[in-house]
Sequence to fold (463 residues):
Amino acid sequence: MGVAVAAESEKRGAPRLRYNSPLVQVILIGFVCFCCPGMFNALNSMGGGGQVSKTASNNANTALYATFAVFGVLGGGIYNLLGPRFTLLFGSSFYVLFAGSYLFYNHHQDAKGDAFNITAGALLGMGAGLLWAGQGAIMMSYPPERLKGRYISIFWSIFNLGAMIGGFLPFGLNYNRPNAQSVNDATYIGFMVIMSFGSLLTLALLTPDRVVRDDGSRVTAIRYSNPFTEGWEILKLFRTPKLLLLAPACVASNFFYTYQFNGFNASLFNVRTRGFNGVFYWGAQMLGATVLGFLLDACHPRRKVRGFVGIAVVAVFGMVTWGGGLAKQLEYSRYDLPPELDFKSGPEYAGPFILFVCYGLLDAMYQTLCYWTMGALTDDALALSRCAGFYKGVQSAGAAVAWQLDAHKVRFLVQLLVNWGLLVLSVPLLMLIMKDVKDSCAGDAPLTAESSTKDGETAKETV
Fold:
């Protein structure tokens, strides 16, 4: 019935907004991430998780991204075994625990509070690996080829709207505390309530076989895999040339958060202004994802050309942004910080604020490019879930290193230069990947050349 309705809708040239359409399912996963990782990003972007000491947050984030690196890689296989609902429900639930650990730390800034914070971080890494692997599979495999960039930008905009609105929580709830060194309990409770709703929202997602595109085709005809198949396919990712070329971009795509949140936002601004900055940082991400997503879909008839245009735009904007960051960083250091800025500070606040917004723009543009690139390599849903897991796993391994660099008090200038260097390294490798991208990947073999079915047979999958 759904196929017939969709086909008829396509003939009329007016696709309907159906519950079982790829668009609605991408919007739903967007709102799950709005509530869970979106609120997490708002919390983290204040620097130190809103605490006076960044040490506990650095260690918690290190534990988080260390386990994230493992479960990010495994997440695609687990998603293929369990399906979207259970995988995403389990993964998203740990965001609530993580926010709760900061609430606990507000009252127990001792060994007990540190232990809870680090443990919650490690558990969240497990959950986030599952959540993001599932999210990546949905976002990259559900849309038709001609709309992949737009669907990625729609997801990224909804997701970052969560972080943007989440930024109002610390700003509004701490507005009358301009001299406060950490956020109040109500801030963490607010995050926990929203995260809990997002976790329950995963139950509204459909299984992939029930999702129908506007032309009447189903998203996928796959059968859930088995542990042996998934383990073998995950191992094969690490000898897939295109993904190995993507690895530096994976590392770069989350490495900079430590510097931007701790070395910049937390070092230059007071608590309430950090929340205010976060609103615009994540709002800029919505704009960046939207602009680049539409550019990657519409700037040229050939997909390969669109990819090269996207790389060029990100490379030029990245060089300009990190160049501006270097100019600002030369004015202060970890042990020679200027007086904290408030959003009412006037002209001296404007420059650093604009730079922080540009950092947000660059983040969204860079990650949109990475996801679009992976989606351009294949349409195979099984392969893309594993590919998303690979991306998040390698990304998180890099982030774990970045948080420890700050925990060991590596100079801010060194952190900035490493971030800039990773961008420079990843651009030519992305161009090498784009060289082999075809104008259509329908009917292609998965990235690892073969896809094993549940019965142990080998077949080329199409979607």
In short: The chain is about 70% helix and 0% strand. The mean pLDDT is 82. The beta strands are 451-452, 458-459. The CA atoms of residues 52 and 181 lie 5 Å apart.
